[in-house]
Amino acid sequence: xxxxxxxxxxxxxxxxxxxxxxxxxxxxxxxxxxxxxxxxxxxxxxxxxxxxxxxxxxxxxxxxxxxxxxxxxxxxxxxxxxxxxxxxxxxxxxxxxxxxxxxxxxxxxxxxxxxxxxxxxxxxxxxxxxxxxxx
Length: 135
Hints:
Blueprint: H1 10-25, H2 28-36, H3 51-57, H4 61-69, H5 84-90, H6 94-102, H7 114-120, H8 124-133
């Protein structure tokens, strides 16, 4: 006997899409309102990207800080094994990288890790940020 996946209300899907856009666009105050209303800080897309990964990829340091303060898990990986920290390194956002490191993100977690991302894409400034934080 196969299990049926319950149909998701189209309104819920539309709301989730708006919340994901808020994270991508750095609409921190709007996103805070939705988090206050009960949207989970670890809401995840169908590809495994959390709100934190989306905000980090766009270099939205204020949004990343909000999500971390509201309990977003910095060590979650998407379906490709990438973390928010690796996304921030790839996009060369030092402020976002520092916020994630300060929250305890591991530069060697994920595949590829943040450190491996910096090395592969030859991003010496990002490698320096990662190394300085470890001191």
